[in-house]
Design a protein that fits this description.
Largest sheet: 2 strands, antiparallel
Distance between the termini: 33 Å
CATH architecture of the largest domain: Orthogonal Bundle
CATH topology of the largest domain: Arc Repressor Mutant, subunit A
Number of domains: 2
CATH class of the largest domain: Mainly Alpha
Helix content: 40-55%
Number of helices: 7
Number of strands: 4
Order of helices and strands: EEHHHHHHEEH
Structural class: alpha+beta
Length: 147
């Protein structure tokens, strides 16, 4: 089950259903809501609302929006950022794999390679043996960084 909510001024709209249905319906519903209210909300993802916006999206939608649905390295990074947005301070490869599985997303064939590639590019910083966090550079790569 997936759910997404929109608010523009005093008007709110919520979609809830299968993840596939929400993914296929949210954009047209959002455009209809904008047309109805006659205004376009600020969609520039800056400041703390960036991660709030990430946290409110189903993982599948975030993967598509960040062009991470078909690229393993980007999928790993976007999933880790999504977990951070959901309140996870440190992430592990096991948590990334579980999030993908729990959200009906295709698993990564070589998650350890995706972690290593992201670390090499400075998008992820390790904290101990297994824990890591997404860096500001990683968020910028996904287009969800502050500023």
């Amino acid at each position: 089950m997936a759910k997404i909510s929109f608010s523009i001024g005093d008007v709110s709209f919520e979609l809830e259903g299968s993840e596939q249905w929400v993914q296929s319906s949210w954009e047209s519903s959002f455009k209809s809501m904008v047309a109805f209210t006659g205004s376009m909300p600020n969609t520039n993802m800056t400041g703390s609302s960036n991660m709030d916006g990430v946290a409110s999206k189903p993982l599948g939608i975030l993967l598509k929006e960040t062009q991470a649905d078909k690229n393993p390295q980007r999928k790993y990074l976007a999933t880790a950022a999504w977990l951070h947005a959901k309140g996870q301070k440190r992430v592990t490869t096991a948590l990334v794999n579980k999030a993908l599985k729990d959200n009906n997303q295709v698993k990564l064939s070589h998650p350890s390679r995706s972690l290593a590639d992201n670390k090499k590019e400075g998008f992820i910083e390790k904290d101990g043996e297994r824990d890591f966090f997404v860096t500001e550079e990683g968020l910028k790569k996904l287009g969800i960084a502050n500023g």
